[in-house]
Amino acid sequence: MPGVAPIAPRPRDCDASVPELSIRMNQIRPADAALTDWRQAALRFEAEIAKAVVGQERAIRLVTIAIFARGHVLLEGDVGVGKTTLLRAVARALGGAYERVEGTVDMMPADLIYHTYLAEDGRPRIEPGPVLRRSQDLSVFFFNEINRARPQVHSLLLRLMAERSVQAFDREYRFPHLQVFADRNRVEREETFELPAAARDRFLMEIGMEAPTDPALRRSLAFDPRFHDTDTLVAEVAADVIDQGAVAGIAAALQHGIHASPALEDYVVRLWSAVREPAKAGISLPDVAMESLVQGGASPRGIAFLIRAARVRAWLEGRDVLLPEDLRAVFHETMAHRIFLEPVYEMRRERIVPEFCRAVLATVPAP
Amino acid sequence: MRLRALLTLAALAACLLPALPAAAQIGTVTVRSPRPFGLFLGDRFGATVEIEAADGFVPQAASLPKAGPLTYWLDLTGLSVAAGPLLPNGNRLWRLSLAYQTFYAALDVRRLDIPAFTVTFASDSARATTSATAEVPTWPILVSPLREIQPPPVADPVDYLRPESPVPRRDPGPARALAWAFAALGLAGLALLARDRAWWPLHRRPARAFAAAARQVRRLAARPEDEAAYRAALLALHRGLDRTDGRRVMGEDLADFLGRHPAYGALAQPLGRFFAASRAAFFGRDPAAARRAWPFPDLVATARRLAAAERAGPPAGNGGTP
């Protein structure tokens, strides 16, 4: 890929001091020139999003990984930290048809699929709803405040996300490019419905967003009028940086192009069994009986998602081999929401699960 | 005619004159023998020879008698020369202290003569060296027999010998106490050294993780061509890093690791190469490339340096491990 100037800031590269060996290893082979081109596009995409959302480099990186892993993303965080802004910016930079719905307590699955109204002639009409309106072209489906919707809506999403298809008007609609972005605020509990385990498991990642802690960023977020008007802020993002329709092909190519060695496979298997049987792996947390902590989760689908996301991360870092670092970088976001605890610990989930993920990564030897 | 003969004689005498002062340069030679009698077989005895020599003349070391056997019955066992005071007549007194040992087995009281010898004195002037010889005459000693000529017969010839003198009994207490003290000191030192070097049984300490790793790497280095040994050595270093940091240290964490453990700051580059080699060996497409790029000797050297840095501890004034 000669002649392409890096438009986006280079990803964090801690190997700058390491001589020729790693450089040779980190370079994507020339045969995969398309992958290299796409990497530049992905980095440009990140840079565009970063114009609108400051201090969220990690969340932006994870969303990019999710896009190229073809996974659905659930964003959660405090009120007003920029979840919606981030997703709007992503939807803008990502080319393709875009639909957005707001979760409400009275929303029913039919509201997503059908649009019913009384026409001018006074007769009821049924037309395709938000999901069907763009039919096959729908690429970004943005579900705002997903936890305000009822479980019935969640179960519709189940099929939509897992199979990218839905049954309506007595036929099957397919959405080959569909990617669901949802957000959820974790502060409010009234009139909300917790997502069922099966629905959460369909999300590739659950990304937690926190307000930036850097004082300079906080000052500019508070005083810079640029950040007060979300519409113009999102409008600054270049539209259609990535063609969503072509992502599926490149996503499949990079899953084949990134090499996972037997040692890495061993590492993944060790991670997996450590999540399922933490006591045997020698993991211990304060005030937790490790033998009866994990009830279920860490499904084969979850592990497959983890590997998918890790491969994309390796690609974004400019490598053609998968490293434990890649797994670690996406482990929490891809695994935490798939680990289901015993009911006695479920109430303390928000404290226990991050600690548990940290302990698993700190205990399982790599390589 | 007679006058001419006389003159010739005088001229000859004048020619010989330079030889004459030698007599004047050496004064009296006195032998002082403190106890020249009652000497038995094997006795040591001394003598002092005092030689007056003109000031400026010193005895020449080469002319002094050599320590060693002088005759079949006499050994010279020691000799020293010392300059004495300046005498009123302008000469200097030189003292030769001689130590002898006699081996004469006398059957009766007998007078023996210590052999005479000469000592050459020399004076170094700017133009020439003048030498003079002092003659030390013989002097007598009296040696006596140890036993009668014909002792009365005894049944056992051993009875002729005197019984051995009893061995003095010494108190072993202080020596034993000292021996224990030194042994304890040595053991304590060995324990300290073992702790510092993380030898058995103090080898499995978190504070000496790299010492254990270096030991394992050294063992594995005996098979430098073995791919499995190379990987095992890399793993040993990985575990050393993990144990030092209390978590799994991956390549991307190197900068953070060095920030937390400034003791290894000087090893940033070898550690970077280590992680690169480890990535290539475990996760790369061509595992054998790692060993070619970063061969076993480099690995061993890095392990050794890590262990040394670990022993040296964190640099002064720099907190250390969290």
Describe the structure.
The complex is a heterodimer of chains A (367) and B (322). With 367 residues, chain A is of the alpha/beta class. In chain A, the strands form 4 sheets. Chain A has a 5-stranded parallel β-sheet with strand order 2-5-8-1-9. Chain A has a two-stranded antiparallel sheet with strand order 3-4. The N terminus of chain A is likely disordered. Chain B has 322 residues and is an alpha+beta fold. In chain B, the strands form 3 sheets. Chain B has a 5-stranded antiparallel β-sheet. In chain B, a hairpin with a 4-residue loop joins strand 5 and strand 6. Chains A and B meet through helix 1, helix 14 and helix 16 of A and helix 5, helix 7 and helix 8 of B.
Main attributes of the structure:
heterodimer; A: 367 residues; alpha/beta; five-stranded parallel β-sheet; two-stranded antiparallel sheet; globular; B: alpha+beta; 9 helices; 38% helix
Which consecutive residue ranges of chain B, at least 5 long each, have pLDDT under 50?
13-22, 317-322
Low-confidence stretches of chain A: 1-25
Strands of the widest sheet of chain B, in order across it, are: 1-2-6-5-4
Q: How many helices of chain A?
A: 16
Total strand segments of chain A:
11
Q: Average pLDDT value of chain A?
A: 82
N-to-C order of helices and strands of chain B: HHEEEEEEEEEEHHHHHHH
The DSSP helix count of chain B reads 9
Strand order of the largest sheet of chain A: 2-5-8-1-9
Alpha carbon gyration radius of chain B: 43 Å
Structural class of chain B: alpha+beta
User: Can you tell me the overall shape of chain A?
Assistant: globular
* Measured distance between first and last alpha carbons of chain B: 123 Å
**Range of helix content of chain B:** 25-40%
Round the mean pLDDT of chain B to the nearest integer and report it. Answer: 85
Rg of chain A, nearest Å: 21 Å
Please, what is the oligomeric state?
heterodimer
